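for the record, two folds in this file. i put them one after another cuz i was lazy. first one right below, seq on top, C-alpha cells after. the second one comes after a little note so u can tell where it starts
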Amino acid sequence: MFEKNASANFKKHAIGIIALGCLAMYFSCCLASDALNIIEPAFTEKMGWSFSSVSVPFTIANYVLIILSFAFSTYILKNGTRKFSIAAFSTLALGTFLIGFAYSLSSDMYWIYLVGAVLTKFAAQMVQMVCFQLCANWFFSMRGRILGIITIAAPLNSATSITLLTLGKVKFGLTACYMVITLLLILCIYMAVKFGISRPEDLGMTVDGVETPKDESTQESADEIYHTKWSIRKLLTIPETWALAIGFGIFNGAIGPIMGFFLVRMAEIGVDTNLALTIISSSSLIGIILSYVFGYLDDKLGTPVAARILGVTFILACALFYIADADHIALVWIASIMMASIVGGTPNLHPSSIIHVFGAKEYQAANRVISIIVGILSSFGVQLMSILLDTTGSLNIGYAVFAVLCTIATICMFLVRKQYIES
C-alpha cells in the first residue's frame, strides 16, 4: 500500500493516521446520523418527548455548521491539525457522554440532551475535517486509496451500527452503550495526540515517506507558518470552485434521500420488509469494497475521472430505483449496491477533488468556501424528497428530480479541468 522506499517510521505513523481516520468516520456517521434510529424512539418512549424534539438539535446544529465549518477550516489552515484533532475528539466524547447521561435522568433535563446533541453534530464534522486534512498533508501518490480505506467506515457503519446499538440497548441499556462509546472516543483522543501531527516535516519525514519529496511536497521548516494565496473573492472567481461546490453539494444532498427513503420505497413497490433489510445490509457490506475501489480509481485514473464515474453511479442509482419493482428484484439489488457505493465514494472523492484542484496546502483555504455552498445545497435534500412524496403520494417524481440534479452535478465534474497548484 505504501511506497516501496517509504521509511519504517513513516509507515508506523501512517497506519496510526489511517486507524484514527477510520474511527473518526465510523463514529461520526454513527453518532450524528444513524444513531437517531435508536435514540429517537428511546427518548420518546422514556421521556415523553416528541420525535421532533429529539431530532431538532441535530437539525439546528447542521444549519449552524454551514457557517461554523468556515471557522473550523480557517483554524486548521492557521494552526494545523494537532490541537484541533484533540479538541474534535474531546468534543465528540463529551457530546456522547451527555446524550447517554441525559437518558438516565428525568424528562425535565432536556437541556443536557440538547447540548450533547449539538456538540455531537459539531464534532462529527470536526473529526472528519481533520482526518481529511491529515490525508492531504501526509499522502500524495496513494492518497486516493488511503481515503478509500478511511471512508470504508461509512458503509461499515451503515451495515453494523444500528444493529449493534439495538442489541446493546436491549441487553445493557442506552446509557451503558453511550458510556462505552465515550470510553472508545477517549482512546481516540490519545490517538489524536500521537498521530494528529499536521505534517510529516514536523517529524523530520516527507510526504509518502520517501527520501525525495514529490511534486507539491516540498521541504519546509516545521516552524514555518503557511499563508494561503487564496482570498475568498479570488476563490469565487474560479470556475472550478463553483463546479466542485455545486457538484458535491448535490451529491451530498442526494445521499440522504436515496438512503433515507430506501425502506419507504421498498414498501411502495411491494418488496417484503425482511427482504429489503437483507438487501440493504448485504449492499452495505459490498459497499465497503466499492469504497476502496473509488480510491483506487482516484489514484490510477485521476480524481476528475473517478468523480465523473461517481456521478454516473448516482444517476444510475436514481434511475434504477425509479423503474425497479418487486417483479424485477435484480434491479433493486443493483440500485442498492450503487447506493452503498456512493455512501463511501462521496466522502472519499469530495476532499480528494478539492486537493486535486488546489493542492494539499490550500485544501482548507478552498474547502472553507466550498463547504459553505455544499452545506447550503445539501441541506435541502431530505426536505425536497419529503415534499415531493407528500405532494404526489409517490417517490417516482422524487427519484426523477434527483436523477436530473445528479446529472447536473456530473456535468460539473466534467467542468473541473484546471489545477491551481504552485510547484
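(here's the note) second protein begins now
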Amino acid sequence: MTTGAGLALTLDGGQLVGIILGGLALMIPIVAMFMNHQRKMAESFQKQAGQAQLPDIVAEIQQLRQEVQAMRSELNANTIAIDDAKLRPLSPPPTPTAIEQRITEEQ
C-alpha cells in the first residue's frame, strides 16, 4: 500500500488483524451510544403519543358509560312494562261484527 507522499506501507496478516480488531473495539462504544439514543428517542415519542391520546380515550370511555347507563335505564323500563302487561287482564278479542263495522265505516 502506498501513501500520498510515496511511502510504501506493507502490512502482514497480524498487523491487519490488529487494525481490524482495534477498529471494531472503537466501534462498539459508538454503536452502544447510538442504540441508547435510539431507545430514549423511541420512549420519548411513545410517551408523547400516549399522552396526546389520553384525553380522547377518557372522553370515549365516558361516552360508553353514558350509553351503557341509557341502555340499562331502557332495559329496566321495558322490564317493568312487560311485568305490568302480565299483571293486567287481557281484553277479549273483538267480535267479527265489530271488525266488519269498522271496515264499513272506514270506506
